[in-house]
Backbone:
């Protein structure tokens, strides 16, 4: 996934689309914060957002999707495919 500095999703891969059970069109232009649990949203805003503003890149981010955003949340793989 790639986002703008404000968290707006501008690019997403097929794996994430399968995980959240959504179409590419419905995810693009959405802010990443809307897909996260409250705890992950707070962590994103306090740790990753500042890093992204300073360095413009962050790799290997681990956050928990909200149950509203991810209908398959109980079945997400623990390891990358």
Residues:
């Amino acid at each position: 996934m790639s986002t703008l500095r404000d968290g707006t999703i501008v690019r997403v891969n097929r794996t994430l689309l399968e995980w959240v059970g959504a179409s590419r069109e419905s995810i693009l232009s959405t802010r990443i914060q809307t897909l996260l649990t409250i705890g992950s949203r707070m962590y994103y805003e306090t740790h990753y957002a500042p890093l992204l503003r300073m360095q413009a890149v962050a790799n290997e981010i681990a956050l928990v999707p909200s149950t509203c955003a991810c209908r398959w949340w109980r079945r997400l793989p623990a390891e990358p495919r």
